[in-house]
Amino acid sequence: MKHLPNIITGARLIMALFMFVALAAAGGGVPWLSEQLTQEDQFNLERWAFVAFVVAALTDFVDGWLARKMNATTIWGAILDPIADKVLVCGAILGLLALAPNPAVALPCALILFREFTVSALREVTAGKGISLPVTLLAKWKTTLQLVALGAELLLASWGAFDLPQDPAVLHPANLAATVLLLIATAITLITGAQYWEQARKALSASS
What we know:
By secondary structure, the protein is mostly helical.
């Protein structure tokens, strides 16, 4: 039972990979396979990808809670958890863009990816110098906001697969809400990125 949190984290990685491949295939991004899919097959892939995303996002809260509850925090867990988070977020973004290219989400998604890779690089550089960049409370909320916003965008992109109302009176508010959520998530993402950058700059200056 002590390994259960790490098993759940590993499952999140697997679900994130499945979600991305399913969305890419449904969007026509997988050679040979996508060409053989019927519209119903595409809808099935979109539905399963969305379910995988939701379940994977929920495990982000479960594994950490279990690790603390069971006193089962491990080095592997500390390594795998942020990796699984980033794979899920990046996989959702790339799958979303493959499924339904949308200029309105392209820039926010690109900024989120830019921040994630930049902070990962910062952590690698500072870790090499024995400097740790602690996770801030805002950064934890950042991940939650990203997952909620991307979930909303994935639902919109898979709207037809779930046979949801096509009435503009429903679609327009849903689209507006998803866009606002994504913009808020992007803003918080960039703010936390700037905070990490400043932490790294001060730590590196102090150690030189």
